[in-house]
Design a protein that fits this description.
Layout: E1 2-5, E2 14-25, E3 38-42, H1 47-51, E4 63-74, E5 81-88, H2 92-108, E6 113-126, H3 128-138, E7 143-148, E8 153-158, E9 161-166, E10 169-173, E11 175-179, H4 182-186, H5 189-207, E12 216-225, E13 230-239, H6 244-251, E14 259-260, H7 262-272, E15 283-287, E16 293-297, E17 301-305, E18 308-317, H8 323-334
Length: 340
């Protein structure tokens, strides 16, 4: 089962896909092309292959390609489910210690920024589609989807655009900066510095696949209101005729969920985080035709297997990060999914 919120299709409501075929891959080298219309997921596990070093990984497929015949509009379903929290991969004290380690790495000049994440584990009872609809109701977003293969399922409430290609125009809208206060975010030099670094990384990433001279920043520090928080994003554009797989090879993993410089940040993340990220911090989205696609960054994402479910959240850490504020931001990102 695959359900998308209507904004993927420039419509309102929810749409279920009539699935023609599903293919699983463990490597990008196994994929020749992605046929339209397809929904694709690229796991964060691919970061090791693309950046050429060994990372923690899961036993789930690294790439999912779902070929779709058509979509039909459906009504939201209501039903009960139960989430019982039982563990976190990092205790609050360990998350704060991780922030201090990152600050030390920044002081040494090893990195400029790292996105530190945590995994929240739950016992789950009920139909996961009910969880998806409740999650979306708590915080409507442009890139929500629900995917269920029986053996595992993915629930995503992402509001971040990784890459969208329409014709030869490619756009990215990296998010950095989160707060429950608009005024705080508007006046936060820390969040703007963090956003600027990631925007510059996306300029560099898109520059590797774009025509020379075509890359530009068209928005800087734009703030969007969501039901439980405010987010800051910038917009980077370029011109390219590359295929989706060639583009992924040059731009993945998303800069906003790794850090700067990207390769060293990913290497340090693998040391600092005791969990593999799985589909979280990867990307997923719709391939419409031979040239056009939309990929979200898989933030605000949960992965379930059987009666176990893991939800992930993270924060961008820079030198002047205040650990207690970062911890507050972490739980703010969890709020729409699960209220403690």
């Amino acid at each position: 089962m695959l359900i998308l919120c209507g904004s993927w299709l420039n419509k309102k409501g929810f749409y279920e896909a009539e699935i023609e075929d599903v293919r699983f891959y463990q490597s990008l080298s196994q994929i020749r092309e992605v046929e339209p219309i397809s929904f694709v997921i690229f796991s964060y596990d691919l970061s090791g292959e693309i950046l050429d070093f060994k990372l923690q990984s899961t036993d789930l497929p690294s790439v999912i390609v779902i070929k779709i015949r058509k979509f039909k509009k459906i009504n939201k379903k209501k039903g009960h489910y139960n989430l019982l929290p039982y563990s976190m991969s990092l205790k609050d004290s360990e998350f704060i210690a991780g922030i201090q380690k990152i600050r030390n790495l920044i002081e040494e000049g090893t990195v400029y920024q790292i996105n530190l994440t945590n995994r929240f584990d739950f016992e789950f009872k009920g139909n996961p589609v009910n969880l998806f609809f409740r999650f979306y109701k708590n915080q409507p977003v442009p890139y929500g989807f629900f995917l269920n293969f029986g053996d595992f399922f993915v629930v995503s409430g992402s509001m971040e655009l990784f890459l969208e290609k329409l014709g030869e125009r490619i756009v990215s809208k990296p998010i950095k900066g989160t707060s429950k206060s608009l005024r705080f975010l508007q006046n936060s030099h820390k969040d703007k510095a963090e956003n600027l670094m990631i925007t510059d990384m996306m300029r560099n990433d898109i520059g590797r696949i774009a025509q020379i001279g075509s890359v530009k920043v068209t928005e800087l520090f734009k703030i969007t209101k969501y039901r439980t928080l405010y987010q800051m994003h910038s917009t980077v554009e370029g011109i390219t005729n590359k295929s989706i797989i060639d583009i992924i090879k040059e731009t993945f993993p998303p800069a906003s969920v790794t850090g700067a410089p990207k390769r060293k940040a990913v290497e340090m993340i693998d040391i600092l985080e005791p969990h593999a990220r799985s589909y979280y911090c990867g990307c997923g989205g719709l391939v419409r035709n031979e040239t056009d696609f939309t990929l979200s960054v898989l933030i605000r994402t949960a992965v379930g297997k059987g009666n176990r479910l893991s939800y992930y959240a993270g924060c961008g850490i820079v030198w002047n990060s205040v650990p207690e504020r970062e911890l507050e931001e972490l739980y703010l990102k969890v709020k729409a999914f699960y209220k403690r």
